[in-house]
Specification:
alpha+beta; Thiol Ester Dehydrase, Chain A
Length: 106
């Protein structure tokens, strides 16, 4: 991920809402790649260090636990030196067997 100048806002720091969206999307991709559609129902973000436009960063999301319809996931953004810049924890909810989310193939 290259944070570009268009997302820098306050004194050149990328807005926390954008960072949150990126982390949520990383976790969503991890959940989706496991084969079950799900939606975010709880999201917690910890911004550890500022993120400025132009930095080369790595974003990673993974599943921590799956219990029935509830899926817990985490994500992080790290810099080139491996320092964590932001971390997220989320709970996703998969549809019940008798329901489907709109616009899904399952």
């Amino acid at each position: 991920m290259d944070a570009d100048q268009r997302v820098g806002r306050f004194q050149g720091i990328i807005h926390g809402g954008i960072v949150s969206t990126v982390l949520d999307e990383a976790m969503s991709k991890a959940v989706a790649s496991s084969g079950s559609p799900a939606v975010t129902c709880r999201l917690e973000i910890r911004l550890r260090r500022r993120i400025v436009p132009g930095e080369g960063l790595t974003v990673r999301g993974w599943i921590v636990e799956r219990k029935k319809r509830r899926i817990r996931a985490e994500a992080e953004i790290v810099d080139r030196e491996g320092r964590e810049r932001a971390h997220a924890w989320a709970v996703f909810l998969a549809p019940a067997q008798d329901e489907r989310f709109p616009n899904t193939s399952r």
